[in-house]
Amino acid sequence: MSLTLVSSLDVFSRQKACSALAAEQPGALVVLHDLLEGGLVVRRVFQEGVRLVHGESTLEHPCLGCTVRLDLVPTVGRLLKSGTNIVVGLPPAVASETAVHALLRGLGDAVTIDSVVLACAPDALEDQLWDHHTLFESGFTPVPEDERTPGEFLVRELCFSDTVMLADPALVPVEPEARVRGVQLIRELAPHAELGESDGDVCTGVHNLADATARTMPGSVQAAPEPSAPFATVLHRVERPLHPERFRHALAALAEACCWLRGRLWVASAPDCRIAVQGIGPRVWLENTGPWQASRKSLPFASHMPGTGLGDWHPEYGDRGTIVAFTGDDLDAAEIAELLNACELTEAEMAANEDSFPDPFGLNQTTETSERSSS
Q: Which of 53, 84, 108, 119 to pair with 256, CA 20 to 30 A apart?
């Protein structure tokens, strides 16, 4: 038997993707979970289009994580005994990573996840990436406390999933040009993923948890080997630490033209800390992810840690350094290089060996978030 997880922002794309996947697996069970207002969880199980189960329960503390842990995991556990292929449609805005870890913790060796699929409408993707509202404000979740933006959800799903199912909601007219552009953007953002058409070729990738985790690790940098025009990804490295004030002034300009930036920074105000940077649509944030490997007294098992940069070990700096990737449709690689290189400490600043630099980002704290205009 196989178990396929489907995540989405909306129920319409999820429904089309689940139906298409089930049609390729005769007799498969389709499990749909939805979290409604007031903590009401609705659970439905279908086979060959016939509803077999309809159940409801109310969560004492309604949240997406509790829906997965308290209802989805037990449901899948019961259905596994049938030996039938299962397609699970997660509640909209539930991260597939959350569901994967909950299933593995709750069911252990009894469950094998074959594929993790993101169902989306490609013609809406770019607008959703630039949406500055939260998932709750945009109507994608009934949980007011969920402060993620639609873009944050989508980019993480694109990284974690092995498959992207192009599933245009039947009730919404498709804009052909926007759809083509959306497909091109998906190829640029998720070059590792299989692309499938809910109305045509249905193909899925293979879930590998280690690879998926490496792609979503803060500071991880992965890019398509070839650009998917009109989109492209510019990758730039800086060897010496960044001056924090110069970088603060440059950050808005660096982020302005790209829908996704990500990478890791070596900042002079926190020289021993590996700082992850990510910008998705209108939101940019920095996160202190702990010490560089070169700042540790020893390097146990370091070569097995994804995203450490040990493949580019510098004889003097070790894994310290800045590497940032910028994805967009109108990027000037020379301008990006000029802006970032201007932030690098000069030889005189390196020789001065200052004990302290201004810390405009508060990098000794856990996270710093800022917004840029989406105009």
A: 119
Asked if 20 and 167 touch (Cβ cutoff 8 Å), the reply is yes
Give me the torsion for CA of 34, 36, 38, 42, rounded to 10°.
-40
pLDDT band at 202 (very low <50, low <70, confident <90, very high): confident
Using an 8 Å Cβ cutoff, are 86 and 80 in contact?
A: yes
Nearest to 224 by CA among 232, 213, 216, 212: 232
Residue 132 and residue 149: Cα distance in Å, rounded? 6
Enter the pTM of the model: 0.90
* Angstrom distance (rounded) from CA 276 to CA 288: 6
Please say if the pLDDT value at position 369 is more than 50.
Answer: no
- Please state, in angstroms and rounded to a whole number, the distance separating the CA atoms of residues 74 and 45: 13
Query: 176-189 and 122-129 are packed helices; what angle lies between their axes, rounded to 10 degrees?
Result: 70
**Distance (Å) of CA 273 to CA 158, 278, 292:** 27, 16, 6
Please say whether the beta carbons of 20 and 195 come within 8 A: no
Burial per residue of 242-276, b for 16 or more beta-carbon CB atoms within 10 angstroms, e otherwise: bbbebbbebbeebbebbbbbbbbbbbbbbeebbbb
Q: Which residues contact 74 (CB under 8 A, 6 or more apart)?
A: 106
Q: How far apart are CA 139 and CA 145, in angstroms?
A: 13
Backbone torsions φ then ψ of 21, nearest 5 degrees: -70, -40
| Two structure tokens written together for 141 | 């979740």
Q: Write out the two tokens for 342.
A: 């201007």
Cβ–Cβ under 8 Å, residues 137 and 151: no
CA distance 291 to 296: 7
CA 236 to chain centre: 21
CA–CA dist 21, 26 (Å, integer): 10
Are 28 and 22 spatial neighbours (Cβ–Cβ below 8 Å)?
yes
- Residue 152, CA distances (Å) to 58, 80, 128, 313 in order: 28, 32, 9, 31
- DSSP per-residue codes, 210-277: HHHHHHHSTT-----SS--TT-EEEEEEE-SPBPHHHHHHHHHHHHHTEEEEEEEE-BTTSTTEEEEE
Collapsing DSSP to helix, strand or coil, 322 comes out as strand
